[in-house]
Write a structure and sequence with these properties.
The complex is a heterodimer. By secondary structure, chain A is α+β, with helices and mostly antiparallel strands. Chain A contains two helices and three strands; from the N terminus they run E-H-E-H-E. Chain B has one domain: Class I glutamine amidotransferase (GATase) domain (Rossmann fold, 3-Layer(aba) Sandwich). Chain B is globular, with a radius of gyration of 16 Å.
Chain lengths: ~80, ~230
């Protein structure tokens, strides 16, 4: 089965992100004050696996071994069957 | 005695480290490309640079290269391994050292001389210093903000795992002299066994009087002294 998986990776709550803070400030200067702004990374992965559970397991492993740094990141995995 | 200096795509302090080790210290030193075998070395240096363009995260890709398994085996055998700047980032990414190195608090590339306090003078890399000695070595990095959970920080402190801290000339750890926002002004840390050191400052850039400081040379000297003690026992 073909799956499309979207992995979103971001800093854990409360961790300083200077780039996001700078962008938030720039938006304020343009007249768009915001209560909070986070910046995240998204990976879009196409994968052929026997089941959605197996696809999830593979991608979870990828996150733990390379895509995310568990010391500072949280990640979220969304799986869809490709049509 | 033979030392290896690792080379990844994007390493750029490799030749400087080799020069200091072979020409200034006078020890046999090879540059070892990451695809080659890492066998028969008594110590290793992972030099600074921008391995793999800092893609994903600084040090993330190099940390997963197979040669790092050889580094892990050297570390397990008790041989000294030092990671400088990008090398430090590679060591934390590989899990050989705890914590993470994040973008500097003030998100700018900082290239400047810093004062460091030697917090531990019993490690294979600091045995030539006096405890509490203030030394001068330059930094040059964008991701040097050392972060770890409070439990990890207190564990580091309790086992004297912090090798160096950023301080003022009087030895005080103030926010003003913290160049990157590192927790507790941490500039370099040791693993539990003490034979793996990661540090953001560049000792190879402070190993000759003409460059303004010879303090960095003592780190390499310490390492060589330690290796000699291993060989003689």
């Amino acid at each position: 089965m073909q799956y499309r998986i979207e992995v979103t990776i971001g800093l854990k709550d409360g961790m300083l992100d200077p780039a996001a803070a700078t962008i938030k400030k720039a938006l304020e200067h343009l007249g768009y004050p915001t209560d909070s702004l986070q910046m995240q990374k998204k990976f879009i992965i196409d994968l052929n696996e026997a089941s959605s559970d197996e696809a999830y397991g593979k991608v979870d492993e990828m996150c733990k071994r390379l895509l995310a740094n568990p010391v500072i990141h949280n990640y979220n995995i969304v799986i869809e069957e490709s049509v | 005695m033979k030392i290896a200096v690792l080379q990844f795509g994007g390493s750029n302090c490799d030749y400087d480290v080799q020069y200091v080790l072979s020409e200034i210290i006078g020890v046999d030193t090879d540059l070892v490309w990451y695809k080659n075998e890492l066998n028969g070395y008594d110590g290793a240096v992972i030099p600074g640079g921008f391995s793999y363009g800092d893609y994903l995260r600084a040090g993330a890709i190099a940390a997963r290269a197979p040669i790092m398994n050889s580094i892990r085996r050297m570390a397990e055998k008790g041989l000294p391994v030092i990671g400088i700047c990008n090398g430090f980032q590679i060591l934390v990414e590989s899990g050989l050292l705890p914590g993470a190195l994040m973008t500097n608090k003030y998100p700018k590339f900082r290239c400047q001389w810093v004062n460091l306090k030697v917090e531990n003078n019993t490690s294979p890399f600091t045995n030539e210093f006096k405890k509490g000695e203030i030394i001068r070595i330059p930094i040059a990095h964008m991701e040097g903000n050392y972060f770890a959970d409070d439990s990890v920080i207190s564990e580091l402190n309790s086992r004297e795992g912090v090798a160096f801290r950023y301080v003022d000339p009087g030895g005080n750890t103030t926010d003003e002299v913290n160049p990157n926002g590192s927790k507790q002004n941490i500039a370099g840390i040791l693993n539990v066994q003490g034979n793996v050191l990661g540090m953001m400052p560049h000792p190879e850039r402070a190993s000759e009087e003409i460059l303004g400081s010879k303090d960095g040379k003592k780190i390499f000297h310490s390492m060589i002294k330690y290796i000699s003690s291993l060989v003689s026992t």
